[in-house]
Structures are given as C-alpha cells and as structure tokens.
Design goal:
By secondary structure, this protein is α+β, with helices and mostly antiparallel strands. Helices cover about 40% and strands about 15% of the residues.
Length: about 180
C-alpha cells in the first residue's frame, strides 16, 4: 500500500509541475524578433601604395646649325626649351654641351666655331633661367663626326651641339 501512496504522490507532483507555467496568451507582449547578426565585414581589398614618382631623366639630344654659323634656329631653341624643362626637374644633374663642326675648315677654325656653338646653347639655357654653374661646354671641332662623307647630308649631321647629362657621352651614343 505504501507503494500506491508513493505512486499517487509522484503522479500528483508531475501533474502539478506540468501546469506550473500557463501557456502564452494572445494578449501577452509580442515576442521580440531576434535581430540578425550584422554581416561579417567584407574582406579588405589590398590597396597597393601609390608608385613612387618617376625620376625624370635628361635625355641626350642634339641641335643643328647652318654652315659657318653659331646662330640657334627655331628648332634648336625648341629643343633647348625642352632640355631646360627637364633640367629644372633635376637640380642635382649638371649638363654638358659638346660643340661640333663639319670637316670643312682648319682644325683651329672648327675648334673655335664649335666652342661658339656650345656657348650659344649655354647662353640660351642661362637666359631661360638655368644656373650657369651647372653647364660645361667643350668643342671637338671636326674631330668627332657623326656621319662620314663629303656631302651636304654628312656635313649637316656634323654641324651640331650634343647636349646631355654631365655623366653621359652623346658623341659615342649616337654612333
């Protein structure tokens, strides 16, 4: 009998526990919707650093002269303007101007004319605003021809100033 009493007590206890919480009613507060978790951040895009500014190079160039002249032509002035613009961007770089002549005339005459041509280019660059101490000049006269020959085409190529960064060797580069 005692076991019946224990069994009855257990059933009553179980019934009491199942009714301890009333079912939710319609008038109760609405259930709070679970807010979705924020989306994970997008993977970071690898941002490459901006490339370093390119160093401007002073490109070797030449200007040409008429026969027996050291006067700068409009084309020569345009070339010197471009060289001046590059040189302004490279204050650490000096310039070298090599005066040359065609084969006609004596050695002494051509050395003097080559120097006048180099000095004319230097003077033009200085008048544009380039510091004269950055420019060296030299005359090779007729000793370094670019073109070999005894015709007007060869002579025209040899009546020139070669302009370059002070460390370059344009006369050799153009051969």
């Amino acid at each position: 009998m005692k076991s019946i009493q224990i069994l009855a007590a257990a059933i009553l206890a179980a019934a009491a526990c199942s009714h301890a919480q009333p079912p939710p009613s319609a008038s109760a507060e609405p259930a709070v919707e679970a807010t979705p978790l924020p989306a994970p951040p997008a993977p970071a895009v690898a941002v490459e650093p901006a490339p370093a500014p390119r160093t401007v190079e002073i490109v070797a160039t030449s200007v040409y002269f008429a026969f027996d002249s050291s006067e700068l032509s409009p084309e020569a002035r345009a070339t010197l303007q471009t060289l001046f613009d590059l040189a302004r961007q490279r204050p650490d770089q000096d310039l070298r101007i090599e005066g040359n002549c065609d084969e006609r005339g004596t050695r002494e005459y051509n050395l003097a004319l080559g120097q006048k041509r180099a000095d004319a280019a230097k003077s033009y660059l200085v008048n544009l605003g380039l510091d004269a101490s950055r420019i060296t000049t030299i005359s090779y006269g007729k000793e370094r021809p670019r073109a070999l020959g005894d015709d007007e085409d060869a002579w025209r190529q040899n009546r020139r100033d070669d302009l370059m960064a002070a460390t370059g060797a344009v006369s050799q580069a153009f051969r």
